[in-house]
Amino acid sequence: SVSKALTGYDALKMLEQKQKPDLVLLDVSMPVLSGTDTLRIIKERYPDLKVVAQSAHALIGDRDRFLKAGFDEYLPKPFSKEQLTGIISKLFHD
Description:
alpha/beta, 3-stranded parallel beta sheet, 4 helices, 3 strands, 45% helix, globular
């Protein structure tokens, strides 16, 4: 199933209250807590949870910057079903 949170804070509350997801797609530009700040808290609490950075402002070097920040992968928006499937395959089948 898919759950949606509007802010980083909402995402953290959701992770505390629900069964842990297999994957989190996290926008790097969110209100209340930035995606990078939310990621740091997620990785402190749930170090094995896979978190993919998302951004509508894809720039050269973004992927490397997000991976260095601790994200497991990067998926620019908008993305295709094939791109999402590729990320899932890479994170869970490699």
